[in-house]
Amino acid sequence: MSEAKPPSHLRCETCEYLELHDNNEGNCHRYPPVFIENSHWKFPHVSIHHWCGEHVPVSVD
Ligand code: SF4
């Protein structure tokens, strides 16, 4: 069974909450950081190609 193609309009690369670290990935700041055991507080690490239903389009001010 093939995986469904992500909806392009909901990708992290066009989301207000993405803090980009390089050309392909960054952290999602939609919610507060979470504690990772044996580590520290972190925002979720995402690829620009990921997506989710909380997407907010980047505003053009
Ligand atoms: S995970 Fe969702 S809310 Fe976070 S940057 Fe990606 S699309 Fe935006």
Structure description:
8% of the residues are buried. This protein has strands at residues 18-20, 25-28, 34-35, 41-42, 45-47. It is globular. The mean pLDDT is 91. Strands 1-2-5 form a three-stranded antiparallel beta sheet, with no helix packed on it. It has a domain at 8-47. A hairpin with a 4-residue loop joins strand 1 (18-20) and strand 2 (25-28). The protein has 61 residues and is mostly beta strands. The chain is 0% helix and 23% strand. It contains no helices and five strands. The structure holds iron/sulfur cluster.
Mean pLDDT: 91
Please tell me how large the radius of gyration is: 13 Å
Residue windows where pLDDT falls under 50 for at least 5 positions: none
Task: Classify the beta-strand content into a percent band.
Answer: 15-25%
How many strand elements?
5
Largest sheet properties:
3 strands, antiparallel
Multimerization state:
single chain
N-end to C-end Cα span: 42 Å
Helicity range: under 10%
Instruction: List the bound ligands.
Output: iron/sulfur cluster
Strand order of the largest sheet: 1-2-5
Q: Which sequence of SSEs, written as H and E, runs from N to C?
A: EEEEE
Shape: globular
- SS class: mainly beta
**Tally the helices: what do you get?**
0
